[in-house]
Amino acid sequence: MTTSTAEVGESPASAGPRLRPARGRRAPAWVRSAGWKLLRLVISIWAVLTLTFLMIQFIPGDPVRLALGPDAPASLVEERRQQLGLDQPLVAQYLDYWGRMLTGDFGDSLLSQQPVSLLVEARIANTATIVVLSLLATSVLSILGGLLVGVATHRGRRPMLKTGFTMATGVAAALPDFLVAVGLVFLFAVTFTVFPVAGASGADSFVLPTLAITLGSAATMMRVVRSSTAVVLDQDYMLVARAKRLPAARVYLRHGLPNLLTAALTLGGLQLGTVVTGTIVVENVFAIPGLGTALVQALITRDYPVVQTIMVLLASAVLVLNLLIDVALGALDPRSKRQGG
Amino acid sequence: MRRQLRTVFSTVTGSVAAVLLVLLVLLAIVGPIVWSGRAGAIDVAKAWQPPSGEHWFGTDELGRDMFARSLVATRLSLLSAVAASAIAIVLGVPTGLLAAMFGPRLTSAFQSVVNVAIAFPALLTAMFVGTVIGIGVPGAILGVGIALAPMFARLTQTLTASVVSLDYVAAARTMGVPLRRLVGRHVLANVAEPLIITATTSVGTSLLGISALSFLGLGARPPQYDWGGLLSTGLKAIYTSPMAAIGPGALIAVSGIVFSLLGEVVAGAFGDNQSSRRFGRVARAMARRRRRAPSASPSDFLLDVRDLRVGFPSENGELPAVRGVSLRVAAGERVGIVGESGSGKSVSVMAIAQLVEHPAVVTADRLSFLGTELSTMAPAARRRFLGTNLAMVFQNPMSSLNPAMRIGAQLAEVSRVHSGLSRPEARARAADRLAEVGIAEAGHRLRQYPHEFSGGMRQRAMIAMGLMETPRLIIADEPTTALDVTVQRQILDLLLAINRDAGAAILLISHDISVIANVCERVVVMYAGVVVEDLPVASLLRAAVHPYTRALIASVPDMATDRSTDLATIPGRPPSLDDLPAGCPFASRCAFATDRCAEMPRWPRWPTATWRPAGTHREVHCERWSCRARPDRPVWRADRRGRRGPGRGRRAGAGPGRRVRVGQVDDRPRGARPGPVHAGTITAGGQEVRRLSARDRARRVQMIFQDPFGSLNPRMSVGGIIREGLEALGELPARERAAEVTRLLELVSLSPDLAQRLPAASPAASASASRSPAPSPPAPACSSPTRSPPRSTCRCRPRCSTCCAASSPPNASRCCSSPTTSPSSATSATTSR
């Protein structure tokens, strides 16, 4: 990701080693780099908004008739059409859509006639809790586990550990989150009744959903971290660090970690995006009133304003997360920082 | 493909996965035929029954048998997954191919779009598509297909770009191979393998994606059902009849695991661990081997090594990389170790420096440094002792510095760890050492990162790092091999100055005997893990007795070497470590070998013999090929990484103008290579190159590239590669081409049998040279042709003019009658600006 954006973002004059600081006029490299990243985020969010707007236009036939079903009276269909603004010309609809989205007015639900913003307000906290907890758990587990196993199995050491690790993470990564969630429901509903398996009644009701998302994504990330560790440990500069006779902790944490994080984030950053969508599935299994359950309900009932809003929110969350990863990469890897990635 | 199948079945995991896959496919075929009757039989009286002998997975809300339904659903689940992957491939692969083949501008626009698309979660994309075309199986398939397409697009693009930038594609282009053939034969053939692996895993990904959609009620809807749908049905009854959920769930899990395991096995994820039983046995036996107690008597030498042995475990037993090396270095002495690659010289010094890693095993009778035996020291004490007294400089300065740390921090940490200096003190010392090795504005340089340094400066920084403490010995392992000749000299001078001023002894390793002769007082010649000769440099020319030493001396070209004779080369290759002869390891390549050599375990004084270079006399006629560019502007527009923009070339490492000029002959832009000529003209045979058709240009100018392995397509036979050039030129009738291939191979001293072999099995540089067919006199433009092969294979072909780009003046002067110096601003610019 960094290389490509470096090519888009860089400007010719930033090249070449410079002994003295840049002379006047030009903003420092990190400002330009952050600027480019923000611009990319804005363009991406614009694309998401436009696509979700066009979604209704793309639907063949009459979307409102599809949503309300063949039995709905024609007057009601017409009323909802006007409510959605579908009787307006396309450009007017688009401008109106932008105006509403920017002011936080997401329209009214086709079914309940409640403002979508109320629905979002009521449910966003649950979803955000699950996403943030899963992201934290995934990052901590995968970096610690991957680094430890990577160092322990480097250059054919402990072949049994490596085989076991590869098998275990392979299986865990191949299990989709909804399956893990169902398995957890089975375990904790039928066998142990330690954690609640449905609803969002207290802090402990988030344990199982977080676990369901984390298992697969942490396994995938842990593999990425382990293989990045293996690659980084084989680099010449790691040999040099050992030749400088630095203590082992310093060799692995000061010299190894930043480099392997760069590699692991570049490869595994996308994995973190799937954590956000994992919540859609997992909320449904554990019957948690969040954005995911609302989205699936709205998709089945064709409640377009709700679908649009939640899609935009979740997509923006993913895009912002990617921006954060990019910024982290820039901070870790001085080369990408210079070149405005 | 056959190779992949073998890989799959060679591991237990692979076999299990393959068998399970076959079972799944069989189930998908017969399942609906056999069980659809039972699966559809409604019996409301038996709704939600727990598992029983009759209904293994229980029944659903209409009393239908969940087991039969799970088996029947296999077909829909698998077929939708395959369909979704097919959609992803059809959409993604051509897009990626187009983006990579047509110019850097399109590529970077493509990359920014695809990077956003790929970061966008597949589930949301699939839901979006489902909303538009309606909830159901087609919506789910199309949704997942579209969601996975960017992954294929990016994979294809990066793979293609990496192949396109390889020399063999450039070589095929220079030969005028048509685009259609270029894509099919050279590009697609070489990117197919990873794409197939990804396609395998993507069937699994699609299966899970579609199952997730169906599970949420957004995929298959009644009366259709797949595993995901069945799972959500089963979940409703999880308290009473858990098997209804576990059954389909297990099927989803097994198929997901099967596809991901298959992908991994094919990709070789299980192949790289050296955990075979035999390997483990050898490694354990080596580790158990009793360590000889090192001799206790103190040594007067700075470094005293006796009978050093290093072995690596392998499938075929122990590989003895170093077989009893003894070495002594006095305080302040400059000693060089010379030998071909694989002679064990690097491994020896790594073992001396206690840097040889698992699973290699090191033993020695004595390994004493500064009078202290290293092998018996406690690790913590040894770390401090070596950290302050021993400095190392490695071969590749580009990769030896940590790219994520500032130069200052990398230098300062040495003294902070070993001398306990405070941050400012360590920093001041670092600035002082940088200045000492000749880096100007040291204070500012400390704040920079390694990528802001040129190659020569990085090597200086490495040396400065070694000087942070007060080393008594500096081990320099090929410190100048990766550098340009002009910079080489500076680095060697710096080492000499340190030896003179600080009194540190120097142990210099090089494969170039002339480098050692320039720097060292004594030279140790290594071959196949043993020392074959150890003598003062002053008497190298006079007193060297081992034929290998003499061969090394004879193969050094200098400006005075007679251009009309062939370079002396050493025929043959060093013996491989798992098949070492009992006697002199050099005997099989030695012109003076007698029966005694096969027995002699050590090297007594050899009878002096007159050493004469072998080979035939060949007349070479060279003529300069005109190549002009405006001197006030750099000819290159891109640095090594191929980014465009004026002024970029200034900082490129090794004077790219040289290579670019030659590369301009193929004046189309390619992936990671310089753009077209933007100033000046290139003429060949009186005509401007740019105006010529691909075929005419190929007739006039041919390229021999720097890296022989990169310039031959690994998937084509040597004969096929040469024949392709002849076809592109279209000069010979088809039936005469085979004979011409034979003739060309013989011309470069290769056996005609090689025509059937793949390049991996042939002396690559020679084969590369022979590919430029010679109808009318062409001008082969060489770009450092001899840099990577150990001995010179550069032998100019008769009757053609050559333009040879080489970083070493003796090499250029051997080939060419009038060497031109490229205005190399690379090294001076970075230091002076």
Domains of chain B, number: 4
Number of strands of chain B: 16
Which percent bin holds the helix content of chain B? 40-55%
Summed over residues and divided by their number, the pLDDT of chain A gives a mean of 80
Count structural domains of chain A. 2
Pfam family, one (chain A): BPD_transp_1_N
Membrane topology (chain A): Multi-pass membrane protein
InterPro entries (chain A): BPD_transp_1_N (IPR045621), MetI-like (IPR000515), MetI-like_sf (IPR035906)
Domain ABC transmembrane type-1 (chain A): 124-325
Describe what you observe in this structure.
The complex is a heterodimer of chains A (341) and B (833). Chain A has 341 residues and is an all-alpha fold. Chain A folds into two domains: 29-102, no CATH class; 123-334, Orthogonal Bundle (MetI-like fold), CATH 1.10.3720. Chain A contains 14 helices and no strands. Chain A has helices at 2-9, 29-58, 63-68, 74-84, 90-102, 116-152, 159-174, 177-191, 207-233, 236-243, 248-286, 291-301, 304-332, 334-338. In chain A, α6 (116-152) crosses α9 (207-233), α11 crosses α12 (291-301) and α11 (248-286) runs antiparallel to α13. The relative contact order of chain A is 0.15. Chain B has 833 residues and is α/β, with parallel strands linked by helices. Chain B has four domains: 2-270, Orthogonal Bundle (MetI-like fold); 284-544, Rossmann fold (3-Layer(aba) Sandwich), CATH 3.40.50.300; 547-613, no CATH class; 621-830, Rossmann fold (3-Layer(aba) Sandwich). Helices cover 46% and strands 10% of the residues of chain B. Chain B has 30 helices and 16 strands. In chain B, the strands form four sheets. A six-stranded mixed sheet of chain B has the order 7-8-9-3-10-11, with helices on both faces. In chain B, strands 1, 2, 4, 5 and 6 form a five-stranded antiparallel sheet that branches. Chain B has a three-stranded parallel sheet with strand order 14-15-16. In chain B, a hairpin with a 2-residue loop joins β5 (366-369) and β6 (372-373). The radius of gyration of chain B is 33 Å and the shape is globular. The model of chain B is unreliable at 269-275, 600-679 and 764-833 (pLDDT under 50). The chains are: A mainly alpha (341), B alpha/beta (833). At the A-B interface, α1, α2, α7, α8 and α10 of A face α4, α5, α8, α9 and α10 of B.
